[in-house]
Structure formats: C-alpha cells, structure tokens
Design brief:
The protein is an alpha+beta fold and 247 residues long. It has two domains: 105 residues, no CATH class; 132 residues, no CATH class. It is built from two helices and 18 strands. A hairpin with a 4-residue loop joins strand 11 and strand 12. The chain is elongated. The two termini are 21 Å apart.
C-alpha cells in the first residue's frame, strides 16, 4: 500500500508545481514582451539505502520559449518593438544589466526612461535620462531625440541611444524577475544591427488556448492522484481490520 501512496503523493506534489508554472505563463498572457517558461515531467530515481525501487515524476524546467510575440500597432511614440532578433538592455533591481523585449517605455517624473514594469532602460553610458521637452522620438537604431522645452523643431537634439543587444539564444537564461541575462554573468555588447519599430508593441508569446488546456489536464491529473492516495489509505484500513478480525 505504501508504494501506491508514495506514487500518488509524489505525483500530486509535482503536478502542483507544474500547475504553478503554467498559471504563471497564463497570468502573463497580456504582459508586453513576456517569454513563456517551458516545463515537462521526467522520471527521476530516488537514491538511498536499499533496493532502488522508487522513481519520482519530477516537473522540470526546460528553459524559455524564445518564439516572438504578436506585434501590435499602438501609435504611441514611447512604444517600441524589436524587429526580428535582439533585446533591449535594462538595469535589473540588483543593479546588474539584463535584457527584455518589453518596449512599453515610460518617463518617470525625474525624466528617467523605464519599461512598463519600472526597469531603467540603459543607454551608451548607463540609465537613460531625458531632459524636459516638447517632442520626443525614438529612431530605428534606438537613438532618442527631443525638441527641448520652449524651442522650435529646428532645435531637435540627440539625447542618448538605447542599448540594443543580440547575444546567441543558447547563452541566455531567464531569471525569477522575468528578465533575461547571459548565463555566464557577463554583459552583451551593443549590436548596431538590431532595429526598433516605433509605435509598435510586442505582446506575450503565451498561447492562451494551450495554457488553458494544460491547466484543465493538470487539475484532472491532480484529482486522480489524490483519489489514488485515498484509495490506498482505504485499502490499508480495510486490510488492518481484516487482520484484527482474524486474530
């Protein structure tokens, strides 16, 4: 009976973890530039003293789905999207350099350029700061130009250039904060070949239909495993009573 309970218990635990990962993807279906996490079940032998007769069904992360999201035309001058491959460099909460495809840019009250989630956008010399202005435009190469406040269009000036990078995908890993970094901890070099489209926003690459189907399947799988535990417990109780009755 203990083997049945063990199988049901370990399966239920891993199913809960898979459901959490799937729910995280689903919750970010409308997050700009979000990249879905990949996961799957895999057998893992439980090592220890005695005969190796226990195997866990473990939910393992398989990396990140780097498939591009859908491009949405917004017309907003601060919305930008990477055309093709590449990433926007931002400053992570710990101060390190990280990368994102989220182009929903905003200006803080102090003129700092940040993403929709508040990560400072990096330029040629650190976080980008934009002086007071009447007009602002972002070029395909990431250059930020403004018409200073109170001046005419002939006074347009270059403020900074957004750092755009394009490291090999196999060298990237996604952190718990949703940002992507080089696996070796280094900083990628700026790539002049990466191009931006202004007035366009890249959406999440989460397939909502697939995520919903996975959620239903995992819920049913969890229910089956819980019933297995209950059945094993009921059988164990019945056996114990039978033995006591014979005694």
């Amino acid at each position: 009976m203990d083997r049945s309970i063990y199988i049901g218990m370990t399966g239920a635990k891993q199913t809960m973890q898979a459901q959490a990962a799937n729910s995280h993807n689903l919750a970010n279906a409308n997050t700009a530039g979000f990249r879905a996490d990949l996961h799957a079940f895999a057998p893992e032998e439980v090592r220890g003293p005695g005969y190796a007769s226990r195997v866990n069904a473990v939910n393992r992360g398989l990396g990140v789905d780097f498939t591009p999201g859908t491009m949405q035309t917004t017309g907003r001058e601060m919305d930008v999207a990477i055309q093709g491959e590449g990433w926007i460099a931002v400053q992570a909460p710990d101060g390190s350099e990280a990368y994102t495809r989220a182009g929903d840019l905003q200006l803080t009250a102090n003129g700092n350029l940040v993403t929709g989630t508040g990560h400072p956008v990096l330029g040629d010399a650190g976080p980008v700061a934009v002086p007071p202005h009447d007009e602002l435009s972002i070029g395909n190469d990431g250059t930020i130009s403004i018409v200073p406040q109170g001046q005419g269009s002939e006074a347009m000036a270059l403020v900074d250039r957004i750092k755009l990078v394009n490291p090999p995908l196999e060298e990237l890993e996604k952190g718990p904060d949703g940002l992507v970094r080089l696996a070796d901890g280094q900083e990628a070099e700026a790539d002049a070949e990466v191009s931006l489209a202004s007035g366009v926003l890249e959406g999440s690459n989460v397939n909502v239909t697939t995520a919903m189907v996975n959620m239903i399947q995992l819920a049913r799988q969890y229910e089956t495993q819980v019933k297995m535990i209950q059945s094993a417990d009921d059988n164990a109780r019945a056996a114990s009573e039978l033995i006591r009755g014979q005694g």
